[in-house]
Amino acid sequence: MSIQARAGSMALMLLSLPLIPRPAQAVQVVPVPGQSRQWDVPPHVHFDELLHEVFWDITIIGVLMAMVAAYFLFAYRRRFPDEVGRLQKLSPQAALGWMIIPVALFMADDIYLFAKGWELHKQYREVPENAYEIRVTGAMWSWTYTYPNEVETYGELKVPAETPILLRMSSEDVVHSHFIQQYRVTEDLMPGRVTYMWFMPDKVGEYVVTCREYCGAGHSSMYGKVIVMAREEFDAWLESEAAAISASATVASAQQVVSPAADVSARDFGR
Amino acid sequence: MTPLPLFGVFSGGRSSRLGFGMALFMMFAWPGSVQANYGNIPASTHIDPELVRIDEDKFLGVRISSDYILRDAGGESFTLGGLLGRPLLLVLSYYSCDGACPTINRNLRDSLAGVNRWEQGRDYRVLTLSFDPHDTPESLRMFMQHAGFGTQSPEGWSLALLNDPADIGRLTESLGYKFFWSPRDAMFLHPNVYILLSPEGRVTRYLYGASINSTDMELSITKAYGNEISPANAVNFLLAACYSYNYRDGKYSINYPLFIALGSLLLGISMITGGVLVMKKRKRREII
Amino acid sequence: MGQPKTWKEWVFTLDHKIIGIFYLAASLVSFLVAGTSAALMRIELGSLGPTLTEDAGVYNLWLTMHGAVMILGFQIPALLGFFANWVVPIMIGAKDMAFPRVNALSVWLLWSGILLALCNLIVPDSFNGMWTGYPPYSETDFAGNTALYSLIIIVLGISSVFGAVNLACTVMFMRARGIGWYQLNMTVWCVFTANIMQLIFVPVLAASVLLLSLDKYLGFGFYDPGQGGDVLLYQNLFWFYSHPAVYVVLLPFLGISFDIIATFARNHIFNYKVAVWATLAFIPVSSDVWVHHAFVAGLPNWLRTMQTFTTLMISLPFGLLMLSMVMTLYKGSIEYRTPMHWIVGMFFMLIIGATTGIPNALSAIDYGISDSYVIMSHFHYVMAISGAMAIFGGIYYYFPKLTGRMYSEAMGKISAWLFFIGMNVVMGPLYFIGIEGMPRRYYDYQMFPQFESMHALATVGVAITTIGVLIMLYSWLHGMFRGEKATANPWQSQSLEFTHTDVIPGPGNFPTPPVMPEGWSPYSYDKTGAKGGSEARR
């Protein structure tokens, strides 16, 4: 018997050997193109639905277990000093049954939750084709948002409503994590890698953005906001910002190298 | 900068700052302190090569639009999007060039010839594209002769022009690719860079041409597959996991901590084996 | 009774019981230090804006100390140090550990590690990179003394690896005659499994943490993308150890709870063999789930999906253990003494902790709650509070064997319920503001002023808990010196450490080497009835 058990435990140990750290982080991360599947609701609404469902699930499991335990704790109090427990020994068949049936039940619940979670996971990770792309740079301890026309904002992410927003993110120094409270979405930023997240700003308003990966003394002051504007308002704002930049940059651009500047003489940018 | 013979992967030299520790890592071939060579800036000019360096932080992960219309040497047009769906290696050149451009294309062909894991055309494609608005199908044919391609481009390799010269600015800007005409040298100054695009058309890596070898190419193509790599194709997965890109040297290097961690995993397991062996010996002695 | 007399005998002792007490002392000191820093943090967060300190760095130091010292200084030494050393050899009928000298080395390494950790409070550039020590932050000058952090982890790591080899060999080779693998206490099985896990995973942690210092001080660049390193690799290696570390804590305290429940319900463990194999199943199951700590760290999507599934699979062995635990009460004869009160509290805390783990396992849910108070609250329920309650219950359970005296039942029970209520008042409100978005590791929460009342409530909870802990400590001190004399088997347990030893087990543990009869089990209450106690030596 003990030899079998020993062999069994050794086999288990051996089985665990090939499960070495899966260093899949080495795989370059790039956004997956949106697939044809259209979702009825934006991810953060979907998130709330799923969370609600999962809470029901775990509440039922937890309350059932607690009630059974509470009943046993109450019903089987010791009645006289020499009383002993009368739990029957299980026959081998019963023991097997008491393993297989609970495992099957847990497994069923796991698979159900996994399927539900996978659906939402795919929605979070599959970026719609028409997403508006904004670059996010994290640094200790502020956020920089760069729009496609090189307009930059600090700590304030202004986005048009009703448009999926794709954030392409990296960090200048340490690991940060970009969390938008309203849109229930978090993704880390780090040097040397590009990560992404997307969200669907469905209502005009201002929402909190915070850092969610510990990054030093300023971690808790690394917050900002998402400002969702009506499409026209946003376009007007972006244009005026761009105009302001180009006005101030005209002087500099004489020396600045702008590509493709086909006929700039070498000495113009020599140092 | 003497290449270490143990692994063909590196052209890494030995850095002298870690005399003793080095001996430990000799077996892994410590990556050297080679600086990546960013562009074809002739030594005769006084231009800082950093000027054409691509701001990788800013442009990695950028998605290029797939609607560019290209024209090949025969004058036939096709879209850039048609080449995607698998990793695409993009080389920007200009066809009147008689210096670096034919060379980097030739070098690329040589180093791709050493890539055995992926088959050109089937698993990845190559695109050489001109950024000179004056280029024509004629100059492209001349260039192909010059670069040693003859009249027919290799399988899975397209050499082409942008149909609309106005697209040149749009494409190069979206890739962060800078180039200038230098009248003094009578040539374009530009980065010697191979741009790896993922199957979806996102930039996954900039590889600076001068010191790229077959292994770097193979790894960069593997990694351009990104999310599509899974443990199902274990060899690719492991290969991608064992190497990481080294921004300083512009090459791939071994992911040392992984191996150190693996070693320590074995250490833990060997300790338990050792303990068991000692106890067995002791028990036997007690019985005798 | 063979206790060491001179200080030399104490320091150079090779007796596993004395060494176990050293472990216990170390873990209690750590508990007080880490608990104090928790209380300071809660007071700081009790109201918006600076309360105790204006310097976020000071808060971060408390936070780092709380996490690192609670796990590495309190829980692991208490469970794998005290219970593994003091209890396990007696439970299997051994006269000592397999390698007593290695055992002494482990405990002194542990003490050095804890003293080094306390130094972190004194040194001017104390390390504030959290117990996780993620690069690149931990490699910057902002993080403070990374070398100290690496050193602490490595010293403690070596200590626990030595301890683990020792204990595994003890269980494998030192069992008394007549004790087979399926006649071991659940504590033995759980501690054994936890130690196998320590052996496999700790060296990985030690190596990856060592590389941090090599990076920072010698410029190697293992984790620096600029030099070909990878920032994320550290997170993978760290959690490759640190998720199993949760089970390294969880399993031993479940084992102790099993034994306490069996003793006080006078029942055998329900479906014992399945429970044993469920325990062992944690080794493979836990080795492939670490990515759920990094669901939002930019890892490939397929990996997140895969590890969502493997993480959910933890519920299978865990569910079987919980089922065995509940069913051990069935048709029992439950006596409510102080240890049982602690374990009942532990059980309900564990239910909350386990069920709140399920949403966290789903990568999709994690996008909304990652690194929020939800996570913090969950692991406090499942590991910190349940673990602490089981440890304190276990200390009460063995109190008569350690001191030869009884504690005060009233004080013990009051402390258990104050601790239970207090911790619920702390962690319950925090769970709900976590769902609303309150992030972890925040010195202040200016962006979420609406959470202030909940934070204040949690701070009240800490006060309740503190009173509970103080009563508990007082009951121990009181019992040690003033308690009534204990008998050798105060609970009429069937387990070897009660039936075959003196009131305080002396050197060699057993007056005569035990030889167990055919069919003996530490849980055979139904055969011999409660008479087992009367055979015990006085």
Could you characterize the architecture of this molecule?
The complex is a heterotrimer of chains A (271), B (288) and C (538). Chain A has two domains: 32-76 and 92-126, no CATH class; 132-249, Cupredoxins -  blue copper proteins (Immunoglobulin-like, Sandwich), CATH 2.60.40.420. Chain A has a five-stranded mixed sheet with strand order 5-4-3-7-10, with no helix packed on it. Chain A has a five-stranded mixed sheet with strand order 6-12-11-8-9, covered by helices on one side. Chain A has a two-stranded parallel ribbon with strand order 1-2. Helix content of chain A is 40%, strand content 23%. The model of chain A is unreliable at 12-36 and 253-271 (pLDDT under 50). Chain A contains five helices and twelve strands. Chain B folds into three domains: 1-34, no CATH class; 36-248, Glutaredoxin (3-Layer(aba) Sandwich), CATH 3.40.30.10; 256-288. In chain B, helix 3 crosses helix 6 (214-224). By secondary structure, chain B is an alpha+beta fold. Chain B has helices at residues 19-25, 56-59, 100-113, 137-146, 166-175, 214-224, 234-242, 256-287, and strands at 69-72, 77-79, 88-93, 125-130, 157-162, 180-182, 187-189, 193-197, 203-208, 243-246, 251-254. Chain B is elongated. Chain B starts with 18 loop residues before the first helix and ends with a helix. Chain B contains eight helices and eleven strands. The longest helix of chain B has 32 residues, at 256-287. Chain C has a single domain, classed as Cytochrome c oxidase-like, subunit I domain (Cytochrome C Oxidase, Chain A, Up-down Bundle). Chain C has 18 helices and no strands. By secondary structure, chain C is mainly α. Chain C is globular.
